[in-house]
Amino acid sequence: MEKKKVSKKIAAEKIETGLMEKIVSLAKRRGFVFPGSEIYGGLANSYEYGPAGVELKKNIQDEWWRVFVRERSDMVGLDSSIILHPKVWEASGHVAGLVDAMVECKACHTRTRADHLIENHYETKGEKISVEGKTEAELDAIINSEKIKCPACGKFDWTPVRKFNLLFETHVGIVPEAQSKVYLRGETAQGIFISFKNILDSTRVRLPFGVGQLGKSFRNEITKGNFIFRTLEFEQAEIEYFFDPETTDWKELYEKWKGDMWKFVTENLGVQADALRWREHGDEERSFYSKRTEDLEYKFPFGFKELWGLAYRTDYDLNQHMKFSGADLMYVDPTSGKKFVPHVIEPAVGINRLMAMVMLNAYTEDGDRVYLKLPPRLAPYKAAVFPLLSNKPALVDKAHEIYNDLQKRFVVAWDDRGNIGKRYYAQDEIGTPFCITVDFDTLGEGDAANKDTVTVRDRDTGTQERVAIKKLGEFLHGKIYR
Ligand code: GAP
Fold this sequence. Notes:
This protein is an alpha+beta fold. It has helices spanning 2-29, 51-70, 86-92, 94-97, 114-124, 136-146, 189-194, 196-202, 250-268, 316-325, 351-362, 393-407, 420-430, 472-480; strands at 33-35, 47-49, 75-78, 99-104, 111-113, 162-165, 169-171, 181-183, 209-218, 233-243, 276-280, 292-300, 303-314, 331-332, 339-340, 343-350, 363-366, 369-372, 383-387, 412-414, 434-438, 453-458, 464-468. The protein is 35% helix and 25% strand. A hairpin with a 2-residue loop joins strand 12 (292-300) and strand 13. Bound molecules: glycyl-adenosine-5'-phosphate. The site of glycyl-adenosine-5'-phosphate (GAP) has 19 residues, from strand 10, strand 13, strand 16 and helix 11.
């Protein structure tokens, strides 16, 4: 009994060590994620999402939108601009505050975040430290006293620690002058605050209510991104949940959001609870206006890392925008007439990070078989349709008929290359939950009882069953959206 336990543990660790490399390789091989601008030699921390990847990413977005916006009566949606008035980012504090402390190696010009450099250095010594909140001078002192070498070239020759803003700058108009400077948004959240008044005026929302937004954000990340975990551009899914602090207990609301986030990751995205944990920000790490901030962390192969942040931001953002814009962003209670600035709780997540987690979590090795055990709802293709033989027109025509019909309801794949085993292998790696084969029985040329039926093979169990063609749509729907 004990022996079995040990070997199982070793097997699990083996998968863990090479897991990231396996996912990166599978992602490219099967059209999930390609390195960014590859034919031009690549662009660090940028990726292209291929045919399977775009479907998986979209399914995760759709699931988030369905659960947190469409199916909630206390939520509305928004799609604000990527380029906002530059004052938005002054008001939000991003121009002054979205900064990383960086050092550059004078020998090879590698730039790296000082906190990552120091923390990784201690990690290799088997110690865990956090340098959150330390000044540039304090970071400099640690790098120098520890004589931390450049991870790229091995030299110890750093510039002093310098603050570096992560916002991407660009210009509106044809003259790149100071007045025309704008930023690509560093988070979607600010678009929600600046539309707060318009949402109040154009809808019938009443506190407490939330606004959800999905869309691209941009940050000039220059450290190693760990695949799609940290990239220059990424899809954020953010919620600002507004409430009256005098009538809503923020602690209760906060705990409720924690429950909803946890449920989404474990139930909708199918992630095991033991790969997740909450980590509360200490006083040094937490923004000065936040009363509580916690990260839901996932155990990535490179350690437990932030997946989804939850912050009680008080009334800071609305107040800042009132101050900088001069607009009145107060809420008037329709019953009591009380006028005040609402407080917010903000659950903020990156879809790309969720996608990395979903792929890592789904990766399964069973003997020689490799498959992505994705929740069927998230799988890029819900089914794949094959004619048993590609050189028999009657089989191909029938399979095409089924494929065209299913395509009206589901995203389906077609494959007629190689033998059935190879086709199963490819679909397993993509995570397609069902493979449908049209054979001679289907045409009524074999077992008469199987006429007008097909073989449906289940990805996870490998079992096959005959299903009537006319019931295929209902069969798949029942299995996928149960
Ligand atoms: N409005 C709050 C905010 O933006 P954040 O912790 O900076 O907070 C929220 O970002 C989430 O966005 C993170 O938990 C992470 O999932 C995702 N995220 C942040 N930076 C990212 C990056 N460079 N690449 C991919 N995802 C990122």
